[in-house]
Amino acid sequence: MEKIFAPEKIFVTIALLFGLILVLITPPYQIPDEPQHFLRALSLVENYRLIEIKKDSTTGDYLSANLDIIHEKYVPIIKHLERKTSFKDFKQYSKINYDKKKLMFFSFPNTALYSPVCYIPQIIGLNIAKIFTSSIVAILIFGRLFSLFFFIAMGYFTIKTIPILKWGTLLVFLTPMNIILSSGFSADTVLFCLSAFYFAKILQFSFRTENLTTKEIITMALLAILIALTKQNFFFTFFIFLIPKNKFGARYITKIATILLPAIIFTVIWSLLIKSIYIPLNNADMAAQSLYILNHPMEYITVLFKPTYDSLIILYEAICIMGWLEMSIPQYYYFLYIVLFILNSLIISPNENYLITTINKKIILTALCIANYIIICTLLYLSWAAPGEFYPTMVLQGRYFSILLLPIMTTIYMIIPNIKTKFAKYFHIATVILILAMIIKVVNILYIRYY
Q1: What is the DSSP letter of 417?
Q2: Percent of the chain, pLDDT > 70?
Q3: For residue 103, what are the β-bridge partners?
Q4: φ/ψ (deg, to 5) at 135
Q5: Is residue 441 part of a domain?
Q6: Residue 108 placed within a domain
Q7: At a CB cut-off of 8 Å and minimum separation 6, what does 56 contact?
Q8: Total number of domains in the chain
Q9: Is 107 within 8 Å of 59 (Cβ atoms)?
């Protein structure tokens, strides 16, 4: 019975069922930044454009002019709750084909900076779609499907791999925000999945008695490179320091360098490659903003850690927000989620593994969580905000912090004494019920919103 109701199997069932529903009922472009991500993925598939074209004051590529017809239909719906569509519209616009003979320049300066790693699942889906159809909408749907399949596969292996907090990992993967992003074009899905699996492997290696093999070190190095090239988030790879030193055997420094140095090098190389096509947005000036932060350190620390309603919005967005931040599920789901998040961190079954760790590892984990939060915030403020402007609700969107939910849950698990009880299974059941209730509510809200 336990094998049938294993958390990884429950995850696959829920994610596949509701993911497919979300792929089909969510109109084109109604997932955060989906138009720009779709254009970047198409550029990679159609033109093999590793580095995009800088034209006048923007960056983009020449793609089928028929894309503009899809844009004119579905972009105006974004953030306008009063505007609807229909399945009849969907069927009609599905007849519009990708015509390579008629091209026009499309601007997507934000996603033009992303490496192809961000779009590996969608690129596979788009290439397969091209074999069967030239319909732009059908091609979009294929890309969405392969994003979902990637999310499901990575979620399964993450839950299967992680030695502790399996039900908590299920809870983290199936937030409304994560499953919505997974059913569309988004670089955040790839980043979240790779980061979660990387962190699960770290805990796996920390928990077992055997040392890391050469193959495992190479695997971690490859994962670190992929994470670093996904929105240049290389600092997450530093969680590798959680693995006890003795698990590396001889030449500890060499093996750590083997994992981390390639990721840093690839990040630097990609940054240099895209330097010439970078277009500042929202009056952003990275140099001036960096200087402002260095000259006003206390103000910036206050901005980062002030316990205000704005900070709560960021956490709420990471869990319960939908669409382009204009829809959300009721707040009571959020509070129930937080309760179960904490309970899944603290309460374990008598037969569950327990990770014994040192005070040093607890300090390192806590410090890395805080440091990653600061790095993410700082990169966003440098890229998206004018010098001296710090508005969390504008720049710090919750989905950017989803990758920290699992490390935060592990921090709670390690720092606060766990409670072993046979009643833990009831909290697991409650977790599944809450997830189902939230996702059903998501489907209901989206259907009413768009149709």
Answers
A1: P
A2: 96
A3: 64
A4: -65, 125
A5: yes
A6: yes
A7: none
A8: 1
A9: yes
